[in-house]
Specification:
- Helices cover 45% and strands 14% of the residues.
- It has eleven helices and nine strands.
- Helix 3 links the parallel strand 4 and strand 5.
- Helix 7 crosses helix 11.
């Protein structure tokens, strides 16, 4: 029985693979360019593109369980629908799909809306799947480390409603555990949704205060200027993606990204330990600066 991982060369996908290998699973990694991929011993590699139907059919052959992770790209939605349809035709009945929290609320944010429609497809077509819905990735803030340390400002417009930020290492471990649970079940398991959240909900001011404490000097929250945020992002990403991120940040300001009652306890039980905190991330990041 083989578990196929898409998004295998990314941060989360690579960690999922390592967890599965540690548990003795038979793992196949889907990659565009095998020459650039490095995986643990024993991991099979399948060359494919999520828009290349013929190569997907070959990659999915003999697979029992699928981990679906789609990058934020213009055709993310199409990639996901094609891959899931090919998986269904291949008889794959055990799926873990990485969606996003509040996909049904942030309906004007392109990559959230696309994931929500994929969720609807999974549900309406009766696929046996776990839908993981992570909140804001703590490690997103690695990209602004220099701004924080050099300029004394936490610049992300996360607002004052609060975000239930989660460490990507926890996301990967939970995904691996769900893949193993489905793979090892005697029969395909019913659909379930799991919010992936951190141990606390943090506002922009909260995060700035954590950095102030960790660095031993004042760090200020930069506020909620989403237009300026979009312009800054356009310096190193396509305009469409910068706009998508702006739309997301505007929903941070109006709605926040909040956990439901029982989410933290459920994840703590699943992992058998406490969830990693933003403070721990800040301490690690500051130490590596």
């Amino acid at each position: 029985m083989t578990i196929l991982i898409t998004g295998a060369t990314g941060n989360i996908g690579a960690q999922v693979i390592q967890h599965l290998v540690n548990h003795g699973a038979d793992v196949r990694a889907l990659v565009r360019d095998p020459s650039k991929a490095t995986f643990p011993a024993g991991v099979a590699v399948a060359k494919s593109d999520l828009l290349d139907v013929d190569s997907l059919r070959s990659a999915f052959d003999g697979v029992s369980t699928l981990f679906m992770l789609n990058a934020v790209v213009p055709d993310e939605f199409t990639q996901a629908l094609i891959a899931l349809n090919v998986a269904r035709s291949a008889g794959i009945e055990r799926i873990v799909y990485l969606s996003v929290i509040h996909a049904d609320v942030y309906v004007n944010v392109p990559h959230f809306a696309g994931k929500f429609v994929v969720e609807r497809m999974i549900e309406q077509m009766g696929m046996a799947a776990t839908i993981l819905r992570p909140a804001y990735f703590i490690q997103n803030d690695v990209t602004i480390k220099d701004v924080i340390t050099s300029n004394g400002v936490y610049p992300m417009p996360v607002g004052e409603k609060g975000l239930a930020m989660i460490d990507v290492r926890d996301i990967a471990e939970i995904a691996a555990l769900e893949l193993l649970r489905r793979e090892q079940a005697a029969q395909p398991l019913p659909i379930t949704r799991i919010n992936l959240v951190g141990p606390e909900t943090l506002t922009g001011s909260d995060i700035a205060a954590i950095w102030s404490d960790v660095l031993g000097r004042p760090i200020n929250y930069g506020g909620g200027d989403t237009a300026a945020f979009e312009q800054n992002l356009k310096q190193f990403m396509p305009a469409w993606m910068a706009y998508d991120m702006r739309m997301m940040s505007e929903r941070f300001l109006t709605d926040g990204m909040l956990s439901d009652d029982g989410d933290v306890e459920r994840l703590t039980t699943l992992l058998g330990r406490t969830l990693r905190s933003y403070r721990a991330f800040a301490l690690e990041t500051a130490a590596s600066a």
